[in-house]
Structure formats: structure tokens, C-alpha cells
Amino acid sequence: MMDTLKQAWEAITAIPHLGLYLTLGWAAYLIGLGLWIVLQKREPVATISWLVSLAALPYLGFFIYYLLGPQRIHRQRLRRVRARASLPAALPGLSSSPEAVELAKLAQATTGLPPTTATQARLLIDGGAKYAALLEAVARAREHIHLEYYIFQPDACGAALRDALVERASAGVQVRLLLDAVGSGSTSNRFLQSLVDAGGEVAWFHPMKLRWFWKRPWLNLRTHRKIVVIDGRVGFTGGINITDEEDERIRKDAYRDLHLRLEGDIVRELQLVFVEDWAYATGQPPLRLTHPAPQPGEIAAQVLVSGPDSSWEAIHRLHVGAIYAARERVWLVTPYFVPGEAARMALTSAALGGLDVRLLVPRRSDSRLVTYAARSYFDELLEAGVKIHEYGPRMLHTKALLCDEDLAIIGSANFDHRSFRLNFEISVMFHDGPLAAELAHLIQAECSYAPRVRADREQPLWRRRLPEALARLVSPLL
């Protein structure tokens, strides 16, 4: 074997002008890949990061960018099923606030979903509360149950929900389950067969198939949404997936997280998002559903969606817009903090302007690279006056933004490039004093377990400064 390899190497090195051919080939590779990346018209920092990273990987870089590089999905937006009516003349919490009206108009223009209301918006803290409320609502279903999840694990939590869905499907309730093919990759069709046998439907979002390779697979474009709609009346969304890793009753190190249980007209918007995703994933015509009679509530709310099928980065814009509109406080909670220039400018401007700006992140996330990347931004934020807290008891997975006394955004989107540009995400924006106060109380309680980062913290070269600097270089690609 060694002799064969040696002979092959000698044959290759004997080729006349081999070095010239390799140099020309590398130059052609750089020009071709460079044109491809530049023509994407992305942010200059991200473009340069891709160019520098892939230039060091001759030829292999082409396949990496082919699989993981930025892509735009041109799918039918199905806006005909979305309500695009003008803003109502008055909504609770909006009429007295020009900033709130402006944000609502921005959200509608970028998502196609108008502001509406909720009769109930309940914060569910941690997986135990979320799973108990979800199973109770599932047991009460009479018409249909629609679920969309990034992670649905075949563990105790997954089996409990599956069995509850099987029971309802056997009773004649229409169950539709949409799972991300990568996030839920460990869940087999065999695990879900009992649901299918009971009459339920299962679909996979962007399944990876080798025969699709020539079409450029969407390996890096996932549905990160968590949506449940029951009978069009009760909805769930937020950051908690279906997995034992998020159930503190099973694991002491379970993620610390936040979810929402919603009732009222806001559920119609969750339903519309699911209907669009289901039609896209299955290739079927949009579902024709009978919606419950309108139920106006006292809680002003609006669903925010974003993904690679839109260039507006709606959730990103609404976060930045809400921060600029704030007059007293900006409290941000996120497990992955890799801000772009616009978001970083908004946070530092708010702090420099005298607002109470707080950032709550995990002391250690489940990605060391992301932890280093996040900390690379700390010095600039601290200098501007941002108070940074690192939550330590467990992995913090909450995604929430609180501005002033009545604006809150809660959902599935992290504060990073992946959530703002690559993933399909969903959040809910509220203008409601009581809900904002409840969220503020939660964040304050979390900060008691999250020591504040000091501006004069130790920064050894090899253990902090250099890893953070290197992580920041690739942060536009995370």
C-alpha cells in the first residue's frame, strides 16, 4: 500500500509545471468563489469573513459555501391568507404612544401581519410549566392540533407529548406535526409511527436528501420556530423545545427558558404562520380552516416572523427599532449574543443616552465559540454604560427584550446573525404594562443569580483576549 502511494505521489510531482498549474487553479478558485460571494451583496464584514475563511481552504471551501453559505429562499409567501388590512383606528396600549404605532406599522410592513390583541398572555417559566400547560391544552383539543418545532426529541418529554397526540388523533382530532429535519434529526419515523397510524400527519422541514444536492441543499436554513395551535383558540410559542434537556423535573441542569401561552385573536396569527410553513414543507395547498369568532382582548400584541425568504430581517429591525424608541430602559436576555453593527450601535447609543441598559447572557453557553464571540463585544458595551450579567446556575435559553414600562418581545429568536438572517423565527411583540412588569420581575430575579461583569476583569492573553478576538473574526458566520 505504501509503495503504491509513493509511486502515485512521484507520478504527480513529476508533472511538468505542476506548481504553475496549482497556482493558476487556486487563483481561478479564488476569483470564481469571490465573485459568487460578492454578488450575494451581504454586509461587507460578513463577505470579507467568508472570503478570508474560504481562501485558506482551496477547492474544499467551494463545497462548504455551497452547503452553508447564505441563501435566499424564493417561496410563495401566501400573503393572500394573511390579513393585510390597515391598522385599526385604536388598539389598547397603542393610541397614546406614537412610538408603539410606528413599531406596529414597521412590523406589519415587514411581515404582513397586523397588530391584534390577546385575551390572555401567560408566561411559562421553564420546561416543567410549559409541558404541563401544553399537555393540558392538548387533552382539551376537539378539532385540530398544529405543532411546529425545531427540536422534538424521542425521550421522556417527546414520548409523553407523542402519546397525548396519539390519544387525540384516535378520538378524531386532526393532528399535524411539522419538525425540522436537522434539529429533530434523532427522531425517527418509527418513533412517530403510532401517531401516523392513529390518523395524524407528520412533515419534515427541509429534509436532507442526496438527490437534492444539485439544487443546493438548505442545510443551514432551519425552522427554529416553536408553535402550537389548538382549535384556533389556544396558542403556544417561545423558546422551549420538546426535550428532556429543558425539563428541570428530569434534569437538574435543564435549560432556564421562557415560553408563552396565548388566547384571543393573536392565536389566528400563529395559525397563519403554521399554515404557511405547512404548505411550504408539504407542497400541499394551504389548509382551509374555520377560525373562531373574533375575541378582542385588552393586551395589544403582534406576531413577528422572519427568515431567509424575506430580505427585511423583520425581527432584527423590530429589536433595533424598539431599542431606539426606548426612553427609560432596555433589558435584553439572550443565550447567544453576536450582534451586528446596527444592533450594537442601538444598545450603546441607548446606554450613552442615559437609559438603563442591561444585558443578561449565560456564563457559559452550549457553544464555547459563541461564548467567546459574545464576550468580545463586552468591552465596548461596558464602556458605553451597559450593565452585563452572566447567568450561572444553568444554561440560560430565554430570548426576551423589555423596553420601558410596557413593551416586550418574547419568542424563538436569539440576538445573533443566525436568528436574524438564516433561521425561520417567530416572536410576539406586546404593548402591555402588566405583562412587561411580570417580565421585569423575572429578569430582576434572574440577575440575582448572574454576577455583573466588571470592566476591570482579568483578561489573560491566551485564556481570554486571544480566543475572544479570534471568535469575533468568525462571528458574522455564526
What number is the mean pLDDT?
A: 85
Work out the helix count. Answer: 16
Strand content: 15-25%
Question: Main β-sheet, in a few words?
Answer: 8 strands, mixed
- How would you describe the shape? globular
Helicity level: 40-55%
How many distinct beta strands?
15
Give the spatial strand order of the biggest sheet. 1-9-15-14-13-10-11-12
Taking pLDDT < 50 over at least 5 consecutive residues as the criterion, the unreliable ranges are: 76-90, 211-217
Rg over CA atoms, rounded to whole Å, is 24 Å
Structural class by sheet pairing and helices: alpha+beta
Q: What's the arrangement of secondary structure elements?
A:
Blueprint: H1 2-13, H2 18-38, H3 44-55, H4 60-68, H5 98-111, E1 116-118, E2 120-125, H6 126-139, E3 144-149, H7 156-170, E4 174-180, H8 189-197, E5 201-205, E6 227-230, E7 234-238, E8 258-263, H9 266-282, E9 299-306, H10 314-325, E10 329-333, H11 341-352, E11 356-362, H12 368-375, H13 378-384, E12 387-391, E13 400-403, E14 407-411, H14 417-422, E15 425-431, H15 433-447, H16 461-474
Parallel strand pairs: 3-4, 4-5, 10-11, 11-12
Antiparallel strand pairs: 1-9, 2-8, 3-6, 6-7, 7-8, 9-15, 10-13, 13-14, 14-15
Helix pairs in contact: 2-3, 3-4, 5-10, 6-7, 7-8, 10-11, 12-16
